[in-house]
Structure formats: C-alpha cells, structure tokens
Design brief:
By secondary structure, the protein is mainly β. 11% of the residues lie in helices and 39% in strands. The chain contains nine helices and 49 strands. It is globular.
Length: 799
C-alpha cells in the first residue's frame, strides 16, 4: 500500500522554524521502522505422521508483498521446542514454497511451524509467525483432544484510553484464555456502591469481544460482571473516572474515518494539540489545532490509503508533544478490496478418479496463482485463519485472537472488528520510545539471496591477500573458473548467490590449475545467512494431550489420511517391482560380480538397488558425502536432517538401518566418509534379514573407484547447499492399464496443490486434477497479486 500523506491544519497555520520532538519522532519512524510479516498457507489443517506438509509463504512489508527479503527460514518444532526439520526458502516477489516430509514414528501431539526472514530478527520475535499444526498418530500412546472451555479472564478497554467524567465512552470487553474461550458470554455494568442496579448490559459479538457505552460520574467505581454460557462469572473493575482529559471517538465508514475530540478541564483547551495518523509505521495523516476550543472533529478521506484496507492508528499529542490518546481502527471494514478469480470454463465430474479442469482467464491482470483444490465434505466449517486475517490483523498483533478469519468473511460484523481493535495495541513501535529518539539496531540487513565465506588454507596456513581460483560446479552443470583475491583475513566471499542444487567449491592457487598442486590445499565454506534460535514461547492451543484408551478413536479425516499413505506405499512397491522385472533374465555383469564379492548372504535381497563405484563412473565428484549424492537416486529413499544437521536416510518413511562394510553404524560416521573411498552402495527395501537398510562398502585390495579417476580434488573442495527445492506434488493416484490393481480406495483430501500456476502467452491457466473415489463437490482456493499488489482471494465450493 503506497500511503498518501495527508496534512490538515485545523484553523490557521502557524510557521515552524525548527523540528519539534514529535516531528523528529515522525522522521525516525519513517526512516527506521520498516518491518515484515509472514503468512503461511498449508494444504491441510491437520496431518498424520508420515504425511507431507505442503506450504506456501507470503511475506509482506505492511500490506504489499515485501521486496526487502529474498530468503525465508521455515522451521518445524515439536511441543518440547525440539527442532524436527527446517527449510531455506527462496522468496520471489515475497512468495516462496516448500514442504516437510513427516516421519511415520512422530508422536501424536501439537507441532509448530515457525517462519521468518533474517531481517525480521531485528525486531520483536513475537511478530514471527508460529503456526499451530496438530499431527496425529494412531500408534501413539497419547491422543489429542479439544479442550473444553476452561479458565478465562476479561479486561475492559475505554476507547482512546481515557474514561472522563460526564463524557459518553465506548468500551470494549475482551476475553482471553490459555485454551478455549466460551462459546457465548454476556455481562452487565454496575456501580460498586449500588450493585443491585444494572446501568447497562452487553452480549458478546463472538468469543473474543463485546462492547458497551457508558457516561460516568466522578467518584463512582464501576464494575463489569461477565458470565459465560456455562455459568462461570467474573467481576472486573473499569478504570477510575478522571476529572480531566481528552476523549477520542472514531467511526470508520466507506467514506473515511471520522474522529471527534472533546477536552475536559484542559488548561489551554485543545490549542496546539496534534493529531497523527499512521498506516504500517508510516505517516499518513497530520493535523494541528491552533484555536482555543474544547471540541474538534474531521473526516479523514480514504485516499490516505489509496482506498485500500488496513489498520489505521490515530494518536493525539498535547501542546508539549505528550501522547494523551490513541486508537486503532480498520479502513473501510464493510468494503473489502478483494478481487475474485475470473473462471472462463470448467469441466467437473463426480465419478471416481475422473479428470477435472478449471480454466482461468488469460486476459486478467493477475498472472501467477496459488491454487488448492480439496474434497469438500459439505460441512461448511468456517475458516479459523486465512491470508486475509494474516495480512490485515494477526500479522501485526501477537495477542491470541480466536478465529480471526471471521472478521473478513462474507457475513463479518464490523462492530466486532472495531471492538477488537479498541482492545488491541499497535506493537510494531511504541510512541514514547520513538519520541525519545530510540532507533532499532539492525543486526541483520535485508541481504539479497545467500552469502558464504570461503576460507582457503595452504599447508594449514591462511592465504592472506592472495590470488586464488575458485572452481564452481552447480549440480550437473559444467564447472566455471573464477579468480578471486582473499582479504587481509584470508577469506573469499560469495555474495548474493541463488541456487537450489549442491554447489561444489574447489580452490587452486596456481595459474594453470594443475591437479598436482591440490594435495596441500584445504577449503571450508561458512554460510553467512543462517537460522536464528527460537527463544520465545509457543502459543497456547485449544488442544490437550491425554493418555489414549485401549480403543483409540480415529476421526474420518485421519482415517482417510492413513489410507492415502498406504496407497502411496503400494504405488512405490509396484514401481520397484516393475524395475526388478526389467532386469530379470540378464546375464551376470560386473556390478553383480562386485555385489557377490562384497556382500554376504545376510545382505542379499531381490528387493535391492546397487550402485557400483568400481566399474561405473557415478559422477560423485563434488559431493560432500554419500548421503548428498544418494538424494533422489533410489525410489522410496528419502532423507531428513537430524538436530546436528546430518542427513538421515528413510525408506518408505521409516528410518533405515546403516551399515559400513556390514557393521551397523550411525549417520555421522557415514557422513564423514570420503566418497572416493566407497566401492558400492546397496539400498535394501524390506528384504533379506536386515530389513530396510542402506549398506556402504569401502574399497578393498587393488580396487579403484571410477570416481577417483576424475577426482583430482581431495581436501581442496567442499559442497554447499543453497535453497531447498520444493518437492513435486503428486497429481494423481490411478491404476495403470498394464499394471496390477494398486489402489482400492482413493481417499486423498488435497486433490491439487500448485503454489505457482502461471499464465503464459495468453494460454488460459488451467487447474487440472483427478477426483478421488467419493468427492461430489470441490473446495477451491485461488490467491494472486497483480503488479500493483492488488489482492485476488477467492474461495468457493464448485459442484
């Protein structure tokens, strides 16, 4: 949102010859308080151990997609704050995507996904997104339950922050709880000296808030008595009634924001008071009062935000630049500026496993879409949170708000949103801190992409102010030679690099890069853009973990997810069987002879994959260890990082046993083994006597690795990992005509996930997916931004 600064002088303009404390504070705010926020979209609300979590991240600078950051860290934690996995995500125009593969043995509990840019670590950690994700496991000894309404507390907030004798004042009442809030609640206002007489009553708009209005009298003590739908009561005190001060009242409509000020017993009335309006930490409105008056009002037009929605903060300062009142309100709450998708064609069927398509207009201003299609069960369950609530509400507040998406739904109550904002405080900056001239210390600048510090050593000595040649080889691409000069500390820097395949860095110090000169060279690479430890507390949730009974109940949605996983394993097994059939009948080859020579009967299995490093060139040069090389090379074999950052192999989502020369070992031992010492790798899938296993065999006798023939570098190379590459979402789960029947019951919930659907050359962007066996209607979510960051958000059910 490109804010338009709007200046209003009430009455005459007085000349200003030097900056006041407030004016310096506004300059400080403009120059030093740029901040980001993240919204994380996942394909489902809940998962089962063994599932894959697909996510799309949106990073905003205020209400526009951020151009500050190109890197996002997304981390998965368990309830004990143990880091399970983490991803480094590339951001393009503030958007990026990725996925987590969950282990099958994850205990059932609530997990948390934290997302933040390096730049966000300069500010309050509470504004980093921490998303709650329940993960179920039918084999777990504990089970998740929704906690019933428990202890809650209430507070009352006067509009503008002041409660003044004789001035009608609007109050917001806000409930909070560590678990679940009561469904409904109501209350009444009494005078503590006359408790049997009700002054006024109120009923909750939703679980979060209610509001009422009262005109107080000096010397009286007012209380609110609140009762929930279960009969629980609580009595709270309203603030003490003041004899003087400033009353602030705001009404937000489609025409703008009307504010009214009333001064009571002020020495100079409202003369020289200043009215400051900010949007996203930027000045959007300023007015001065130059007359001796006790009341003032004005309408702030919507052009201060270019007609866009967002939160507006109005702050009132007295003649000495002291903050005397403030208020948050939402711009145009009944007129949300949201575009809808232009669907020009659709072919939807109800028959099991049928092909479906939805065409979007190629002539739209929106060219890049995020799309999720799910099986809709017809329950019409409202969303608890979504992109709209993340962009306009929860991204800027760290207090707990129940079901924030309700405030931007089709039937939203604007009075409820207004009451909620009366009870909130803008935490992105504090006026008193800014007025005192405090400036945030930026420890992490918004660097572009990734950066690494390379340290070359020759004969264990630093190469200071020396010319070196770095040979960079990205994936399977041809290597490039790049001359560098080390600095006075002996370092070379790779700055602003963007890659998602392993990058091998080799170093030479002679002009012709002769291989014989590498024996006494050593090189390391240190990433300069790294994750930051999480020091805060996870948000409280509505779930509780209890001991599972003998007959553990499994919800239908969880049963579907479990069945989908079984189907995927069947699919993988058939793929493996087909590959095995292809090699049946072949005569013995050098690979088979090597297998017989190195492995014993205990490690023999028809269900195995063998990689021969002696007779075949496996192109393993440049890989830091065998785990890095193995990724993506064997069906059913995946890797997950442990807490020390070492990749651990999994076969069909279960951790595989590791053997070195048929002696069981651990991942750290294998990860430190040079690839050039390996003769053979065998992947065993559930066969033989060892079960799922990865067996590594080293060179023996006169064996020579084909990799060694090309491996000129020894210690003079290292491999660095860049951005995590998103996995490919499985589009279909069908039976091939020429294969055995694999899937008996297709129960997929997410039928289509595409975080990057492009419009190209005026060909209609097409959403293509296959039905499962039961879906009769489809929940379709489409998100997009145009070049001016106008928002398209469209969620509908198609039949």
């Amino acid at each position: 949102m490109k804010n338009i600064f709007f200046l209003l002088l009430i009455s005459a303009v007085q000349p200003v010859f030097s900056q006041t404390k407030l004016e310096k504070a506004l300059t400080n705010l403009e120059n030093n308080y740029e901040q980001e926020k993240v919204y994380l979209l996942t394909d489902k609300k809940q998962y089962v151990a063994g599932d894959q979590i697909w996510f799309k991240s949106f990073v905003f600078d205020g209400y526009n997609r951020s151009v500050l950051s190109t890197t996002l860290f997304v981390e998965l934690y368990d309830a004990d704050k143990k880091l399970i996995d983490w991803k480094t995500i590339l951001l393009t125009n503030g958007e990026g995507s990725g996925d987590f593969k969950l282990k099958e043995n994850l205990p059932e509990q609530v997990y948390f996904v934290r997302a933040y840019t390096p730049y966000m670590t300069n500010f309050n950690e509470d504004f980093q997104i921490v998303k709650t994700i329940p993960i179920y496991n039918p084999n777990s000894t504990e089970t998740l339950e929704i906690a019933k309404s428990s202890d809650w507390s209430a507070k009352a907030f006067p509009e503008g922050g002041n409660f003044i004798n004789g001035i009608p004042t609007k109050f917001a009442v806000r409930l909070s709880s560590n678990s679940a809030l009561p469904e409904t609640w109501s209350g009444k206002i009494i005078d503590a000296q006359n408790p049997n007489t009700t002054i006024t009553t109120f009923t909750s708009f939703d679980k979060n808030v209610a509001s009422f209005k009262i005109t107080p009298s000096l010397g009286k003590k007012y209380q609110a008595i609140i009762q929930d739908n279960t009969g629980k009561k609580q009595t709270i005190d309203l603030p003490e009634v003041a004899s003087s001060g400033l009353s602030l009242e705001i009404v937000s409509s489609k025409d703008g924001i009307k504010y009214s000020l009333k001064g009571v017993n002020l020495k100079q009335q409202l003369q020289n008071y200043k009215i400051i309006g900010t949007i996203n930490n930027h000045l959007a409105y300023k007015a001065n009062i130059n007359q001796l008056i006790n009341e003032a009002s004005s309408l702030i037009p919507t052009k201060i935000s270019n007609g866009n929605n967002g939160i507006f903060q109005l702050a009132i300062f007295d003649d000495e630049d002291n903050l005397v009142a403030k208020r948050l309100c939402f711009i145009k709450p009944d007129n949300l500026k949201i575009e809808k998708a232009e669907i020009i064609g659709q072919d939807l069927k109800h028959t099991p496993r049928s092909f479906n398509s939805i065409d979007l207009s190629p002539e739209s201003y929106f060219k890049n879409y995020t799309v999720v299609v799910s099986d809709d069960d017809g329950s019409n369950t409202p969303e608890e949170e979504n992109l709209l609530s993340g962009l306009w509400l929860t991204g800027d507040f760290h207090s707990k708000i129940d079901s924030p998406a309700q405030y931007f739904s089709k039937n939203a109550n604007s009075e409820a949103l207004d009451a909620l904002l009366i009870s909130e405080n803008w935490g992105r900056f504090d006026w008193n801190t800014v007025l005192n001239g405090a400036i945030p210390k930026l420890k992490n600048n918004s660097q572009k992409f990734l950066s690494y510090r390379i340290k070359p050593l020759k004969s264990n000595a630093l190469l200071r102010d020396a010319t070196v040649n770095l040979v960079l080889k990205l994936g399977e691409n041809q290597p490039t030679i790049n001359p560098f000069k080390t600095d006075q500390n002996g370092y070379v820097y790779l700055n602003n690099v963007n890659f998602n395949e392993p990058l091998n860095v080799s170093i030479f110090v002679n002009a012709d890069n002769k291989e014989s000169s590498t024996d006494n060279l050593f090189v390391t690479a240190e990433p300069l853009i790294v994750p930051t430890p999480f020091t805060g507390k996870f948000p409280t949730t509505k779930y509780k973990l209890v001991t599972a009974s003998g007959n553990k109940k499994i919800s239908p949605s969880i049963s579907r997810a479990i069945n989908t996983q079984k189907n995927m394993r069947k699919d993988e097994n058939i793929d493996v069987q087909i590959e095995e059939v292809k090699i049946v009948g072949k005569k013995a080859d050098p690979k088979e002879e090597l297998d017989k020579q190195l492995s014993t009967g205990m490690f023999s299995s028809v269900n195995s994959t063998v990689f021969d490093f002696v007779n075949e060139d496996q192109h393993a040069e440049g890989f830091n260890n065998i785990f890095d090389w193995l990724q993506g090379r064997a069906a059913g074999l995946t890797f997950q990082r442990d807490n020390s950052g070492v990749n651990v192999p999994y076969i069909r989502n279960s951790q595989a046993k590791l053997y070195l020369d048929e002696v069981q070992t651990d991942p750290s031992m294998i990860s430190s083994l040079p690839v050039t010492n390996i003769a053979m790798v065998k992947i065993i899938k559930g066969g033989g006597l060892v079960g799922d296993a990865v067996a590594i065999y080293t060179l023996r006798g006169n064996m020579k690795s084909k990799t060694n023939e090309k491996e000129a570098t020894k210690n003079n190379s290292t491999t660095i990992k860049g951005y995590d590459k998103p996995s490919e979402f499985p589009l279909e789960m069908l039976n091939d005509d020429d294969s055995p029947k694999k899937i008996e019951n297709d129960t997929r919930e997410t039928l289509y996930w595409n975080p990057n659907l492009f419009d190209s050359d005026y060909v209609p962007p097409r959403i293509k997916f296959y039905n499962n066996d039961t879906a009769k209607q489809y929940k379709v979510l489409i998100i997009s931004f145009d070049e001016d960051d106008n928002l398209l958000y469209d969620q509908q059910v198609l039949k």
